[in-house]
Write a structure and sequence with these properties.
The chain has 226 residues and is mostly helical. The chain is built from 8 helices and no strands. The chain has 2 domains: 56 residues; 146 residues, no CATH class.
Length: 226
Amino acid sequence: MNLLRVVLIGGFLSIAAVILWISFIFGVETSTGTLLINLGTEIVGIVITVAVVEWFFERRRLQTRGRQLAWDALHAVEHAVWVWQGGPREMDTDEVRGILNAVGQDDPLPDFTEGLFLNIGTRSRRLLNNDPDAVAALPGFMNGLEHLARLSAIRDGKAPMKPRKVADILDEGTSDLAKALGKPTERHLASLIRFRDPSLGSQERRHFGGGHHFRPPSTEAPGELG
């Protein structure tokens, strides 16, 4: 409920209080006093009804926004996991968790894939800080974002974050998002998921499209100009 609505409700309640006070001055037994009492109580009843209805509408709006934000977060995770590990282009949460469970410690994690996870972590942290009401309106959503927000530190350490740790963070976040959205929380068997291929070449193809070849920055010193 925004400040303007609070001020309006407070104003009408103040008016009702003044009317009721005047009614006692005239005397509650008089016709004028009775009229003012009825008017004051009517205003109070209307204001309370409007405030309750407004609260329900605001809560519904926040829940709708929270649900949309949760779907956006889940879709971002699904896309990033698909780029990293492969599998079907459209995956349900149980398949995502199954693929993440199969991530090996030596699976490649190139800069462009790492960047996808960094964006997920950064966006999750921003949602927690900037839109807490919408996040809190959907039970379980905050837990999922708190897990995913850890990915915002994926490049902070001296050594790269290990693939297995990245997978565990994504798995925990996916599980909580699935609970919040009523999606499957079980873990699909990775051996039954088709098209899984975490090789660097396959990640390049899924991220950049066919025919693109990612070239890591050269560490060789530039040659002398002739």
